């Protein structure tokens, strides 16, 4: 039941972003997407599940690192989508972002 509730909340957030952006307000869609709504909801669920405080601390620290690296995607996608087709721009941007995240993961483990 808890998984279903989490899925519904996540789906509502995604549906809100898409609907608002499609209806002509991509700025509001970006704002909804940009606020750490999923992080807050996740932390609340973890808190009510009795997760140890050390896990919250590690999650927050690693989220900062991974969010900063994942920001590679957006400027790259904006540049590419203006010059090549949508799907190749998306694919290249995702691939390079995932490569950066993988390199960071290896670095953090060493």
What does it look like?
The chain has 110 residues and is mostly helical. It has two domains: 1-50; 52-110, no CATH class. It is built from six helices and no strands. Helix 5 (73-81) packs antiparallel against helix 6 (86-109). The model has no long low-confidence stretch (mean pLDDT 88).
Can I get a quick summary?
By secondary structure, this protein is mostly helical. It has helices at 2-22, 26-34, 37-48, 53-70, 73-81, 86-109.
Order of helices and strands: HHHHHH
Our estimate of the beta-strand percent is under 5%
Number of strands: 0
**In terms of per-residue confidence, which ranges show pLDDT below 50 for 5 or more consecutive residues?**
none
- Average pLDDT: 88
Q: How many domains comprise the coordinates?
A: 2
Q: Gyration radius, to the nearest Å? A: 17 Å
Percentage of residues in helical conformation: over 70%
The number of distinct helices, counting runs of at least 4 residues, comes to: 6
What gross morphology would you assign? Answer: flat
Structural class: mainly alpha
The quaternary structure here is single chain
Q: How can the largest sheet be summarized?
A: none
Whole-Å distance between the termini?
38 Å
């Amino acid at each position: 039941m808890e998984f279903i509730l989490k899925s519904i909340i996540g789906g509502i957030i995604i549906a809100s972003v898409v609907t608002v952006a499609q209806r002509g307000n991509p700025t509001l869609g970006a704002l909804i997407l940009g606020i750490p709504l999923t992080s807050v909801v996740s932390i609340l669920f973890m808190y009510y599940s009795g997760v140890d405080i050390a896990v919250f601390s590690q999650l927050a620290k690693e989220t900062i690192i991974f969010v900063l690296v994942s920001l590679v995607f957006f400027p790259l996608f904006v540049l590419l989508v203006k010059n090549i087709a949508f799907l190749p721009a998306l694919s290249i941007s995702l691939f390079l972002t995932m490569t950066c995240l993988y390199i960071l993961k290896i670095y953090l483990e060493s």
